[in-house]
């Protein structure tokens, strides 16, 4: 196992403040023992019929580093709204968390029957899940 979609937190969308609390976000994590380079990977939002609705592509480099990689247990947070990518934040010592922004102006994780997929740089599906299965408990999407 490597990269995984671990959680979706529905919330508000707009310019994401530095606290990042209350904003809609998808959290990915490297659950494998090795390193993963996610340059050119994609996070895809699909409706209940499997039709692509939104696609977010990870950049080829991050902060000038063309070899940026995620170590085991590192997080990537993809906010639906607008903001600025950040240097990795160190959490609990060794674990790092990167932040990216989709740049959308409306919440998209409101329908539990929708799907989310993570694809690698050549388009292989790494993981796909129904949104309902990864919504944070207590934050169920509306009708």
- List the total number of helices: 0
Structural class: mainly beta
Biggest beta sheet attributes: 5 strands, mixed
Question: How much helical structure, as a percent, in the residues?
Answer: under 10%
Span from first to last CA? Answer: 33 Å
**How many individual β-strands?**
9
Order of helices and strands: EEEEEEEEE
In short:
The chain has 143 residues and is mainly β.
Description of the structure:
By secondary structure, the protein is mainly beta. It has a single domain (3-133), classed as Lamin Tail domain (Immunoglobulin-like). Helices cover 0% and strands 37% of the residues. The chain has no helices and 9 strands. It has strands at residues 3-9, 25-30, 42-46, 52-57, 75-79, 86-91, 95-101, 115-119, 125-130. The strands form 2 sheets. The protein has a 5-stranded mixed sheet with strand order 1-2-5-7-6, with no helix packed on it. A 4-stranded antiparallel sheet has the order 4-3-8-9, with no helix packed on it. Strand 3 (42-46) and strand 4 form a beta hairpin. It is globular. It starts with a strand and ends in a 13-residue tail after the last strand. Residues 139-143 have low confidence and may be disordered.
